[in-house]
Amino acid sequence: MTTTTARSIVREIVTRSYLRYTPTNGRAPEGTEYGVDGWLFDLPGETLNGRRFPPCTYAAFQVTRNAELVWMVREVGGERRQIGSHSTTRKGALALTVGAVAHEREKAAAGGERNQASVIMDARLARIRASQLSALPTVAEIRMAYPLAGGGATLRLMTAEGSTAERHMIPLTERGPAGRENPPAGIYLDAITDGANTEGLKTAAEWHLIRLGFDYARGAAWAPYTGSASSEAQWKEWAPMLPEGHRWPHTVRVAITATAEHLAYIDRACGPTPELPDLPTGVSAHPSGPRSWQICYAKRRF
Asked: What domain of life does the UniProt record list for this protein's source (predicted)?
């Protein structure tokens, strides 16, 4: 990523015309807003990288520091910030002020470029967040397997449209892949005595729901589910082949909702781009997607 740094025109300023200010010469448009006697000068406004900086008035004045008379410059009005460092001459204080103002403007203008990129990324992350929220499962289902598949049971999490992500198809009567966390010992080995409504299956399903960031909807409970006419006719045909206790109900469902922790995780992953502190020279960083950043240095990306 190439970044062009705009150069402020105030860097070209070597000298300024000054106007002596005192509380009685009427220079201050708002009476005593300027605060102290001093030599007033203006720095021109400009536009850098599409950002407008208005002209500003500053006051150069003398103060005693460590028994030495030095020149300082501060803003006129507003917060009256000191700009630059003090100097033994007014010309030196002006030069320090010009450099400080130019640096502030150039940095703010460069920040505008980064902010524009952040706005684009924030909009993209907002679309991803909306997509993830709309794809959250709203129904959990325990379904008995077909007889020829061994008569086990599977937990399935479905969206409002009835679709299911692969990670939301979970066998309840066998261990998961090696290295993956499994339900507490014994739950998936419980005997199936009441079809899909077996207490052991529901306990195992609840464990998986919590692990995935879901909970039962308020007042919801597992209930038998009747499928299509053809599906029910098939189950009726298979009934004699099923062990006792596996026949009905073959499917139970319950309404579920994402937990507050799960929603907060989505918000963090797809939330606004955070502000970064100043990076070392030559280093740039920007988000490349949810939970990922790209770092660029010496024409290399990390």
From this structure: Bacteria
- Count of helix runs (H) and strand runs (E) in the chain: 4, 15
Helices (H), 135-244: 199-212, 229-238
Tell me the pLDDT tens digit for each residue of 102-121: 888 887 777 655 556 666 77
Amino acid at 281: T
For residue 62, is pLDDT > 80? yes
Phi/psi of residue 140, nearest 5 degrees: -110, 140
| Main-chain dihedrals φ then ψ at residue 260, nearest 5 degrees | -60, -35
Q: How far apart (Å, rounded) are the C-alpha atoms in residues 270 and 128?
A: 7
Burial of 234 (0-12, 13-18, 19+ CB in 10 A): middle
Instruction: Give Cβ neighbours of residue 246 (< 8 Å, ≥ 6 apart).
Output: 144, 151, 192, 195
pLDDT of residue 34: 46
CA 136 to CA 160: how far, in whole Å?
A: 8
Q: What are the tokens at 1?
A: 């990523």
Q: Which amino acid is at 140?
A: A
Using alpha carbons, select from 155, 134, 137 the residue that is nearest to residue 145: 155
Give the start-to-end residue ranges of the domains of the chain.
9-122, 135-266, 274-301
